[in-house]
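Quick one:
INPUT:
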């Protein structure tokens, strides 16, 4: 599809969503809606994508660019939302250098790259200059109806609002995905009018314009009708999202991963899990997360943009965000890893430990009730229960350095900026305010006094 441009229509107001957020930016299984057709078009091999934007254009542009930083994508502006034909016309300049255009409604997140390729084949085989995708559905709902001639050729698309009772009963519908020769498409689009119930410029009028000139319109009927699912309102959003989540889980299981009760596991689009890993019920694996092989992700954990190595055990109810856990580490239960935390190979982060913007070196352990923030911890360090890095002085965040082999006793405060040297010891209950030299023992607690018979005297 090197000579083909994909034009994605995403300028609509999304009135039926009842939100100020443009419809294309609604998150569907973690990915903005508008990104799905772009992804499918790129996977199908189109060389260039134009997204037609209008309502809150700058926001939509920024999101699309964020998700596809290297793809050939540009934008066309539709100032006023006058209908799908008008939106397509707004991309005329973008389309002009290309022989063919793939036109996609921006609210179709289930369309696969294979369907786009099949449409391309029908277009080529029919020897036509216009082809579309249709679907046979149980409930034609708000879709445009496909009217065929007695010999089975597509004649026209009738929008629901303009349909007669007889036409409403037709259960073959217009999916909103088309392929056309650019030059003749734009010549026809310029002639589309607004004489319909919605007084909009309907893209779908193109079909009748063609057939009434005796031109044939190619049609590919979806093999899997569920791909036609579009999102016009919140109920459709939840239905389509559930379908995507099921297919994400199925894709992960196909990679050789066990998912217990997959209907309770939430896996956003684009996440990956390596073979032989196991995911327990109630786990959320959110955008950007990649998990290696032979891992166990236990019940209730929420992983967002997390990179998890091989052989890692995440015990129940951990929250891990924008962080990296290296091979064979053990995390949780109830650990909270905030952004920019890195746990080295064989590291342990135990229950009720919070980490933020910190590195825990290979084989180091912080097993109980601690806060490790803005800290650089070396290898084979043992951090005792209840250790707190006092990283914030009210103005600045300060760094704590704990070098390899150090042993930090329980209930220690490390008042940053401070450095604990190699193989040194910090006694339990110490408040460390000055650097500890390599191999030293730091103690700051006062000597214990026992007052004999105190209870009796009192
Ligand atoms: C459209 C089709 C209908 C088809 C259905 C499939 C038309 C007239 N109707 O109806 O036949 O069955 O999709 O999903 O095309 N948009 C713009 N600018 C506009 C209007 C819309 O960019 O001025 C964009 C929307 O953001 C959306 C897409 O075009 O992504 C389709 O618009 P929508 O309002 O959802 O059309 P439907 O009523 O679903
Ligand atoms: Mg729609």
């Amino acid at each position: 599809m090197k000579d083909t441009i994909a034009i994605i229509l995403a300028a609509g107001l999304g009135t039926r969503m009842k939100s100020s957020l443009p419809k294309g930016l609604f998150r569907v299984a973690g990915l903005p809606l508008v990104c799905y057709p772009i992804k499918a078009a790129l996977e199908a091999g189109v060389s260039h994508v134009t997204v037609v934007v209008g309502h809150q254009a700058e926001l939509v542009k920024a999101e699309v660019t964020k998700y596809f930083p290297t793809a050939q994508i540009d934008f066309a502006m539709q100032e006023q939302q006058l209908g799908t034909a008008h939106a397509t016309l707004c991309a005329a300049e973008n389309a002009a250098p290309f022989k063919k255009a793939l036109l996609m409604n921006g609210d179709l997140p289930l369309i696969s790259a294979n369907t786009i390729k099949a449409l391309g084949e029908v277009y080529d085989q029919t020897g036509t200059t216009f082809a579309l995708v249709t679907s046979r559905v149980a409930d034609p709902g708000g879709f445009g109806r496909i009217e065929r001639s007695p010999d089975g050729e597509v004649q026209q698309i009738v929008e629901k609002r303009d349909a007669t009772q007889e036409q409403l009963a037709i259960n073959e519908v217009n999916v909103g995905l088309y392929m056309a020769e650019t030059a003749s498409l734009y010549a026809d689009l310029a002639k589309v009018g607004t004489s319909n119930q919605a007084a909009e410029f309907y893209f779908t009028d193109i079909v009748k314009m063609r057939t009434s000139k005796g031109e044939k319109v190619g049609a590919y009927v979806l093999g899997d009708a569920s791909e036609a699912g579009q999102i016009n309102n919140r109920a459709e959003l939840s239905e389509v999202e559930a379908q995507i989540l099921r297919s994400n889980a199925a894709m992960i299981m196909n990679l050789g991963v066990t998912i217990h009760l997959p209907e309770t596991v939430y896996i956003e689009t684009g996440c990956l899990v390596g073979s032989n890993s196991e995911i327990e019920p109630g786990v959320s694996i959110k955008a950007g997360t990649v998990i290696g092989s032979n891992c166990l992700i236990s019940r209730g954990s929420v992983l967002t943009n997390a990179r998890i190595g091989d052989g890692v055990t995440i015990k129940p109810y951990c929250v891990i965000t924008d962080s990296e856990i290296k091979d064979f580490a053990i995390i949780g239960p109830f650990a909270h890893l905030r952004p920019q935390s890195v746990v080295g190979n064989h590291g342990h982060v135990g229950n009720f430990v919070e980490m933020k913007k910190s590195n825990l070196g290979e084989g180091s352990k912080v097993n109980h009730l601690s806060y490790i923030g803005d800290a650089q911890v070396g290898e084979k360090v043992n951090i005792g229960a209840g250790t707190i890095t006092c990283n914030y002085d009210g103005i600045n965040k300060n760094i704590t350095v704990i070098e390899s082999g150090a042993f930090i006793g329980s209930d220690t405060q490390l008042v940053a900026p401070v450095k604990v040297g190699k193989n040194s010891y910090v006694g339990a209950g110490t408040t460390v305010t000055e650097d500890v030299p390599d191999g030293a023992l730091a103690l700051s607690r006062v000597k214990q006094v026992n007052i004999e018979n105190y209870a009796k005297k009192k």
